[in-house]
Structure formats: structure tokens, C-alpha cells
Amino acid sequence: MxxxxxxxxxMRLDEALMRPSPASPSERxxxxxxxxxxxxxEGRHATVVTRFPPEPNGYLHIGHAKSICLNxxxxxxxxxxxxxxxxxxxxxxxxxxxxxxxEADVRWLGFDWGEHLYHASDYFDQLYAWAIHLVRERxxxxxDLSADEIxxxxxxxxxxxxxxxxxxxxxxxxxxxxxxxxxxxxxNGARVLRARIDMASPNMNxxxxxxxxxxxxAHPRTGDAWCIYPTYDFAHGQSDAIEGVTxxxxxxxxxxxxxxxxxxxxxxxxxxxxxxxxxxxLNLTHTVLSKRVLKRLVEDxxxxxxxxxxxxxISGLRRRGFPAEGIxxxxxxxxxxxxxxxxxxxxxxxxxxxxxxxxAPRRFAVLDPxxxxxxxxxxxxxxxxxxxxxxxxxxxxxxxxxxxxELWIERDDFMEEPPPKYFRxxxxxxxxxxxAYFVTCTDVVKDDAGxxxxxxxxxxxxxxxxxxxxxxxxxATLHWLSSDGPVPAKVRLYDHLFSSPDxxxxxxxxxxxxxxxxxxxxxGCLLEPSLAAVRPGETIQFERLGYFTPDPDSTSDHAVFxxxxxxxDTWAKVxxxxxxxxxxxxxPSRVEATGAAG
Length: 598
Ligand code: ATP
Ligand code: MG
Known about the structure:
alpha/beta; 7-stranded mixed sheet; 29% helix; binds magnesium ion; elongated; binds adenosine-5'-triphosphate; 16 helices
């Protein structure tokens, strides 16, 4: 039987096949969707319920985005629901700021948990009652060993562990001690509650894992109500069961925890039976995806904050100008696999360029201005040129841009002594000013230091709009700005935060691999006047230069733009070389735009 969902998926698969994807087509209709599909087909669940369970101890990163797209994506495709559940069992590391940022980021990515916002801390009473249940069933005990002693008793992968001397203490004694742990009688680390499973198990996670520890710390939500907190292992599966989660999808490092997950579900009177499925986490070249490291980058001042445009956080990518759709497309492109791999960061950029190429309005900006005076253009005359807003989207229409006798062009669009293959402006040479006129350089003005400060040119009035009646075609088309009212701006250029594709590999210090040139700030840039009205969150193509977005640091009299990405798509190139196919997304307009730069 084919359901509507299957059809939708088949269509998406077709789309995916049309794109240059490193994921094989079978990965797109991935193994997790196959499991869910079979469960639905065989009537195991009325409704598919997934969850995204972040710990609020930092901001979300692009790896989390993969998990978000997977969990919410599956819920949407199967007509189910996805919960946002904060795994807030570690009060010393968790903060309200992180809770708020995580909600904002998931929403911005385009997903909605409806009324299903939960916290593991919502279940602290229930979890405590279940812990007592395990003690009564002789499946858990209070252990007086210290953390070091517990570690030492645990054994190794090749040696079995040893029982704690407290393992067989009477049930009533454990109950009494657990109660007193809860009431605050003992200091941190004095005792723990452990499951009583098997100290000789080949799976270390089953060697009497800790279920509760004493932590005298206020919790962002429950305040001082508790001084014992459940471990991840004890909270997670039970929270899933309480919420009726059907498929608890997590990353591979939890594969070895699955037997414990199942053991707890088997031994507790939980209301439902969730199933844990693991997939490979996202790793990206030139990037570190670990909240611990990202937090250090922030705290040690290597970046300006969690949302620094160089950070792989969702808030950083947003500030950088990446559209949510580009991130979702990336998640779809990479698919879901069962074994770990590292994805080229160029593929993320490729997905983002695909969206921006379709959607971003084109504008003129000159990052390093060089003055041009058109000698035969009447002084005081102003013409309004009609310029196409987006060649990929006719509905975006055209806009008027002023053309005057004095203009700005990009300094590197001129060379006094051009080498072969440099087709842009040079003395005696004619080029096209995009959608305006052909101009020819007649003279060069220099300052005392010999630096070019101005070009004198003439224009051909017959070429208005950018075409010559005699059909002649200059080899280069340049962008330009009238000297009449451009907006001054600072522009921040970004490169990878880490210069090594594999930061910290071969025992190197991770922070030694930071790219010292990850940010370059250009002052004295000039923008088309309409760009003053653009707000953070909108990404624009500066013609021939790349994609840019205003930074929240912008003020009404001081514009600051971030470069989202350059136009050059190295991933598309790699694909084209590897497969002999034209790079997707390299529309004729873009080829012309970059090609013209010679
Ligand atoms: P980090 O390792 O960056 O500190 P974490 O795993 O501790 O992250 P959590 O808040 O526990 O972060 O993660 C929430 C969910 O996101 C988990 O289900 C986790 O498996 C998933 N997740 C975390 N990192 C990645 C990643 N790189 N790729 C895919 N999913 C991830
Ligand atoms: Mg985690």
C-alpha cells in the first residue's frame, strides 16, 4: 500500500536525485524512515512521536540542526508530532539564556513543537518514585563508594568489574539513605543511587550505572526543590516513555547505552515503550561541533559570542546570513547514515548558495572604491538606470539606480599594466558598466606616492542599457556606483574559523588550528542607497562580490555588513570535475558574473 507520505517521500527522493548529492539515493529514503514506515504499516503505533532533546548547556550548532531536521522532518512526514524536550538534569551547567536561545533557534529553522514543550525536570517527582520502585524490587541500591572508588571497581573492557561492598545492603537501608540524600543530609558525592544489574557485563554501561547523584545546586526551573538529580541514562528513556515517544532518535555514541535504556524500560511500570535508534552525528571539515569547545571559544574571546558569524552555531549562521532553508536543504542533501563520516563544509555552503542564488536580490556595492570621472558626460546630469533585481526570479522586477558623471568602481577592476587574460579596465580599454554604458579609460590620475586615485574615462551614449547598436561586446562587465549618495559601510569578510580541515588532529592543540584570518574588516566601502533599508536576516547578493547581510551591529548612520559567502562554489567545481556534469546552481548569470571578473 502506498500512503500519501510514501508518495511525498518518493517525490522528495526524485528531487534529491536531481541534485548533486554525496548521499546515495538510498540514504535519502533513509534507514530510520524505513523503520518508522514499517512500524506504521504494521500498526505498531497510531501516531509517530519523536523528540529533540537538547541539554540547555550551550547554543545549538549545525550538528543539532541535522537532528532537528530529522526528528521534526519524520514527525511531519508521518503526520505525527515532535516534542522539544530540554534534558535539564545537570543544574550546574544549565542556564536560562540557553533555554531561550534553543527555542528561538528551532523556531527559526522552521519547526514548531506546538504545545509539546517539555523538560526532564517536569518529571523529577515521577523519576524519584520510579527510583524507589527499583530499590524495592532490589534493582537499585545506595552506594557509599566515592566517585574514584566506583571508577576503580568498574573494571575495564577486558576485565570484569567488582561488586561494591554496599551492593547487597538491605532494601530498607537503601530506602532510608535515598530519602536522606533527597532531604539534603549529605554533601555532594557522598553517596549515589545505582542500578543493580551486572558488574561483569561486557557492556560497561550495565555495570551498575549511577541513576542519581547529589548535587547541591539551584536548578533554573525547580530552584532548590532538589539536591539529587537523575543521570542522563535514568532520565532520558523514562521521559520518552512518559511522553509517548515512539522513536527516540539519537547519535551513535548512545548505541552502547541502548541495553540500559531497554533494561530500565523493562523494569519500570512506564506507560509506553519507546524505541531508541541511533544515527551518525554530523562532522564538518574546518569546524568543531562540540558545545564544550564552542563554549571555550566564546569564554576565551576567540570569537565575539555564541552568535559570532564564524561560529557553526545556528545563531552564528543566521547572523552570517545563511537562510534557514539552506540549512534544511543541507540536512536533506547529507541524509542519514549509520556510520560516522566527515562532510566537506563546502557542501553546506553549496546548499546555502543554491537558495541564495534563487532568492537573494542583487545590488551594487563597491568594497574598495576607485573614482571614475566620465569626461564627456554632462556635469549635473542624472540618469536613472533600470537594473534587474534578480535574473533568477523575474517576479523580483527591476529598480532604478542613479548614473552620474562621477562614479565609483572596484579598485581591482582596473590595472594600469594588465597581464594577459586580465580583461577588466585598463588604459585605452573599453568595458561595460552593468546595465548602463560602455566606458573607455583615457587617463590615470595618481597621488604623490604614485597610487592611482582617479580614472578619466569617456562613455559611448549609443550603448545605454549595456548594448551597442554595432554589436561590439566588451570582454568585461563591471559593477559601479554613482558618487551621488552611496551609503558608507564597514564590511566584514569571513573565512573558516579553523584553517585545518580537521582541527586538533594528530594530537595538535585545537586552538592552534584557529585561522588568524577568519575575519577581515574593510572600512570605507560604499553601498547602493537602497541597501540602507535592508535588515538583519535579509541576505543580498552584491553583484560580482558575493552574498552579504547587515550585521545587528549596524546603526542608522553606520552600516555594517557581513559577507555570508563568496560567489565561487568550490563544491560545485569539485562535482563538475568528478562527474563531468555542469555544477548545479551555477546559472548563466553567475558564470557571467564571476567570469567577467577575468
Ligand atoms: P555536543 O556534543 O556538541 O556537546 P550534545 O550531544 O551534548 O552536543 P545535546 O544537547 O545532548 O548535545 O544534543 C541534543 C541532540 O542533538 C541529541 O539527540 C544529540 O544526539 C544531537 N546531536 C548533537 N550533536 C550532533 C551532531 N553533531 N550531529 C547530529 N546530531 C547531534
Ligand atoms: Mg548530549
